[in-house]
Design goal:
The structure holds two protein chains of two kinds. Chain A is an all-alpha fold. Chain A is built from ten helices and no strands. In chain A, α3 packs across α9 (about 200-210). The radius of gyration of chain A is 23 Å and the shape is globular. The chains are: A mainly alpha, B mainly alpha.
Chain lengths: ~250, ~270
């Protein structure tokens, strides 16, 4: 009991100190630049009560989930396939590496001018942000499978499908989950980028609208919430990753 | 917690080995196939202004001598370098303190992790309020994008300094400052490099995004402007250059790690 208090005390203390300094700085600077914590929370409460917040949140969540799920559904199987077909992997791998390192935001203007303002181009942006970490980590994982495992499976005449299900997928899953964790963070960036630069919807619109109306309280409230969502999603990603990391050597 | 690690280290070693085994042919073939598919799809289904390999190739010689392009590149690279340098210095200092002092670590940890998990581009509306639609807001965004991965990784590194080193230093009565600069910092350098590699990628994204958002001149704005005026081929040359920078940073840091810290291996943990 005593030890849990001692363990958690620094966290609560630092949280209290952070909020206090936010409040003090906020009260002593111009309202146009910074609003104190209390006012941010108040503004957030107004947004929640007016219903604006919830509709925008659901809108963003829909975009995030669609892009993210498609990215995992394509990235992971494709990664396994590439790991299995050696020639294909050797050929394609450098291009995947290049795309992995390219700042995907740079493609947004092209997507905008070719696909316009609908839902599909925004999903494409989230997908492009999220798919490469999944693909990259899956390939890395699948090619670290010890060849003996596949040889043993083969000598027991396991069929291709059984090989995937019994050997490759279980072996690669922890690596895929590392990719999933990274993809969550990137998909969130992609979501906000799509909402900023394509048609303005969701939480991105909430910030943009507030910023254009010089509603600093609204800007802080939205950033605060998206920050919390980011932290929460990161936690979820880490939990998923740790859960599957147990059998990873 | 952090995205530490250098996962591609082992693969570089592997790639250099496999090139000798004649993997060049499948690579070239795959590249040609991708380019051909792209060309055919665009020719068949897309309007004429959409970038395709042949027209991008013919645009390259035109664009690379265009002073507007060169200026934009110089501006963006300068901003990225300045922002990265600031983030490196401040991030290393904060990271070292966090790694070696339990109190500082406990005070700052949640804030650093929180800011690190935040999608960095949401600060743009705020920074545009604070700094105006200017280069200052861009630098601020780049620093914000880059600093947290450096802090997190350096703190990790400083925490994992072998205790014997510190004990030896103490028994020779080193001052805390000397311990920090001569033992902790060198021991944390591989982590620092891993953090820097992530930071460089994030800084590049931060620069491009802030130019989109703030409409300040630079490579990102060059891409935005040209694609808006249907000069997709010219704009795509900018994307290629960004990709080259992204890959260049990766290769540079990997090579540096391999050459100067050959004992350092943390391949599989990312």
């Amino acid at each position: 009991m005593n030890s849990t208090i001692r363990r958690h005390a620094p966290f609560w203390l630092s949280l209290a100190a952070g909020i206090a300094s936010w409040e003090i700085v906020g009260r002593n600077t111009s309202q146009a630049f910074m609003v104190p914590f209390s006012e941010t929370v108040l503004r957030l409460w107004q947004l929640v009560r007016s219903g604006d917040f919830l509709t925008q949140l659901l809108d963003s969540a829909q975009l995030f989930m669609t892009g993210f799920v498609i990215a995992v559904a394509i990235g992971a199987p494709l990664g396994l396939l590439l790991a299995r077909v050696r020639t294909l992997r050797v050929g394609v791998e450098p291009y995947i590496m290049i795309l992995y390192a390219t700042p995907m935001v740079a493609l947004i203007p092209f997507i905008l001018s070719i696909m316009g303002f609908g839902f599909a181009p925004k999903v494409l942006v989230v997908f492009l942000f999220a798919v490469f970490p999944v693909l990259y980590n899956t390939i890395e994982g699948a090619r670290s499978i010890r060849p003996e495992l596949i040889e043993v499976a083969r000598s027991f005449r396991s069929r291709e499908w059984a090989l995937w299900r019994e050997v490759m997928l279980p072996y690669t899953l922890p690596f895929i989950m590392t990719g999933v964790r990274q993809a969550i963070g990137r998909a969130l960036v992609g979501m906000v980028a799509a909402e900023f630069f394509l048609s303005s919807t969701g939480l991105g619109q909430l910030i943009m609208g507030a910023s254009q109306n010089f509603d600093t309280g609204g800007v802080f409230a939205s950033i605060f919430v998206i920050g919390l969502i980011g932290v929460g999603l990161m936690r979820v990603g880490l939990m998923i990753e740790h859960h599957f990391a147990r059998w990873r050597q | 917690m952090s995205e530490t690690a250098i996962p591609a280290l082992a693969s570089t070693a592997r790639t250099t080995r496999t090139i000798a085994h004649g993997t060049l042919v499948p690579r070239l073939l795959a590249g040609l196939t991708i380019a051909l598919a792209w060309e055919i799809v665009v020719r068949a289904f897309a309007p004429a202004y959409v970038a395709k390999p042949t027209t991008v190739l013919t645009a390259i010689p035109r664009v690379v001598v265009d002073p507007a392009f060169l200026d934009a590149t110089a501006i963006t690279l300068t901003a990225v370098a300045e922002g990265l340098a600031a983030a490196l210095v401040a991030g290393t200092a904060i990271g070292l303190m966090m790694g070696r002092s339990l109190v500082i670590e406990r005070i700052l940890r949640h804030y650093i992790n929180g800011f690190y998990a935040m999608p960095m581009i949401i600060v743009l509306p705020l920074f545009s309020l604070w700094f105006g639609y200017s280069g200052a807001a861009r630098i601020a965004t780049i620093i914000f994008a880059a600093i947290f991965s450096i802090i997190v990784n350096v703190a990790d590194g400083a925490r994992s300094v072998p205790r014997e080193y510190l004990e030896v230093a103490r028994s020779f009565r080193s001052t805390p400052m000397r311990v920090m600069t001569d033992i902790v910092l060198p021991a944390a350098t591989p982590y620092l490099l891993a953090g820097f590699r992530l930071a460089a990628g994030r800084a590049l994204i931060g620069a491009v995004v802030s130019e989109f958002f703030l409409s300040v001149g630079g490579l990102g704005y060059f891409i935005l402007y040209n694609s808006r005026s249907y000069h997709h081929n010219e704009a795509f040359v900018g994307v290629l250059l960004l990709a080259a920078f992204g890959v260049g940073f990766e290769v540079l840091v990997q090579e540096a790690t391999r050459r100067f810290m050959p004992w350092y291996r943390r391949d599989e943990k990312s």
